[in-house]
Automatic annotation (TrEMBL):
MF annotations from Gene Ontology: inositol monophosphate 1-phosphatase activity; metal ion binding
Protein name: Inositol-1-monophosphatase
Record's keyword terms, sorted: Hydrolase, Magnesium, Metal-binding
Cofactors: Mg(2+)
Binding residues annotated for Mg(2+) 2, in chain numbering: D89, D92
Cited CDD domains: IMPase
Pfam families the UniProt entry points to: Inositol_P
Superkingdom assignment: Eukaryota
């Protein structure tokens, strides 16, 4: 049967606003927490309650589609197949949420044949919505949930070839510490932070990049890249629910997404290295910058 991506988008936007109300209703001083792999890998009751709401709304609207959520994922058991699949993170940026740092979102992705096909990322703290539909472009909307914007009309985001990133030394780069505190992903992150802040080798004291930013949410980093606010987002060890929605928004805006495994462009479940680059010229046009960055990494 035909899949109506627009209808799925509209459903996801409505779910995102409901999630936003739940997130904003939670009192940060009253948030009960648990941790997953270590004390920096946090889950709250709100993450779980939002995921429950999202999964029950989606499974009743789309009973034949698969569902993968961060909080109900069973490592080693949950698989992403070629079936139409919702891949969601109820709160991306849980650490920010717990600290009352106003940068967290709900990330709702829909993939078909493992290709990110709809992405909805909503930051309720800023009432900021990013959406993308495969083949129809990406949008950014401020004051997204206000009554007069109930009929969806965002601003189309399209990275212009003119603004394309040409040089690592002028790039604003988003990257994250993530929640792993040891192991390969941790070591590689530490190296990237240090290397990117160092001077480059031009002998004139030039810097490797303009600066680094950590928004605390993989999905919001991808959207910032899609909107041209940062030039590159790199992170080692993201999961499918961190990237599925932002991936669609980024690529529909003309950016590119590369995984650390050459040739593997699918949203994977096993914490791969992901690199997002702004630019309207496709993978070929960005080859140089990608190669330059891989050298550093
Ligand atoms: C995390 C955030 C963080 C990123 C981690 C993610 P969560 O998601 O996106 O910025 O560095 O890799 O796991 O735990 O807040 O949903």
């Amino acid at each position: 049967a035909d899949i109506n991506l627009q209808e799925i988008h509209d459903t996801l936007v409505s779910i995102a606003f409901e999630a936003g109300r739940m997130i904003m209703a939670a009192n940060p001083s009253d948030i009960s927490m648990g941790s997953k792999m270590n004390s920096a890998d946090i889950v709250t009751e709100t993450d779980q309650a939002v995921e429950k709401m999202v999964s029950s709304r989606l499974t009743s609207s789309y009973p034949t589609y698969a569902f993968v959520g961060e909080e109900t994922n069973i490592p080693g058991v949950t698989k992403i197949t070629s079936a139409p699949t919702f891949i969601i993170d109820p709160i991306d940026g849980t650490t920010n949420f717990v600290h009352g740092f106003p940068n967290a979102c709900i990330s709702l992705g829909f993939v078909v044949d493992r290709i990110p096909s709809v992405g909805v990322v909503y930051n309720p703290f800023q009432d900021l919505l990013f959406t993308g539909i495969r083949g129809s472009g990406s949008y950014m909307q401020r004051n997204a949930s206000l009554p007069d914007s109930s009929e969806y009309k965002g601003k189309k985001i399209r990275l212009s070839p003119k603004g394309k990133l040409g040089n690592l030394s002028t790039a604003l780069v988003a990257t994250e510490w993530g929640s792993e505190r040891k192991g390969d992903n941790f070591e590689i992150r530490a190296r990237v932070f240090r290397q990117l802040c160092a001077t480059n080798e031009d002998g004139e004291g030039g810097s490797m990049v303009h600066s680094l930013r950590s928004l605390g949410s993989a999905a919001l980093n991808l959207c910032a890249c899609a909107a041209g606010q940062v030039d590159i987002y790199w992170e080692g060890g993201c999961y499918a629910w961190d990237v599925a929605a932002g991936w669609c928004i980024l690529t529909e805006a003309g950016g590119i997404m590369a995984s650390g495994n050459p040739g593997d462009w699918e949203p994977a479940l096993d914490g791969r290295v992901y690199l997002a680059v702004r630019g309207a010229e496709g993978r070929e046009g960005q080859k140089e910058i990608v190669e330059e960055l891989w050298k550093v990494i």
